[in-house]
């Protein structure tokens, strides 16, 4: 059971690492409502697990593990698989709405490609983009570092191919 001092500490730590939770929610949910629901579910799971947090790892590492596991579990049990829509099938007015600037377009291509990855690949990509070391990734995901390196190289190749296909129509 969590006591009052622990409750205050929990609230402070979660608030301090709120950005991590928002990133996980953005990566695994596509609507604001779904993101809010997932955020609440992650906080509930963190609260339930907090008495077992021993401090062996950094709080952020523990938080990532709980958040990613909750997001992946939630995605598997509640959501049907995402279907992709061909941009040509969108109403003409929507096709004209684009982000301005080359960087925003590249970022959008990257996010679109990331969303096509598996749940584990998404998690690994997010941690990589957060500049987490392979040791930290191993602690969070429970996958040996050598396997993580191989997976990350395959993911990079996959993302390169998907973004090239989207940008240049190469297939």
Walk me through the structure:
- The chain is mainly alpha-helical.
- The protein contains 9 helices and no strands.
- It has helices at residues 4-16, 18-28, 32-49, 59-78, 92-95, 102-115, 119-129, 134-141, 145-168.
- The longest helix is centred in the C-terminal third of the chain and has 24 residues, at 145-168.
- Residues 93-100 have low confidence and may be disordered.
Strand content: under 5%
Mean pLDDT: 82
Low-confidence stretches: 93-100
Q: Bin the helical content.
A: over 70%
Broad structural category: mainly alpha
Number of helices: 9
Shape type: globular
Instruction: Report the count of strand segments.
Output: 0
Distance between the termini: 55 Å
- Give a short account of the largest sheet: none
Q: Element order, helices and strands?
A: HHHHHHHHH
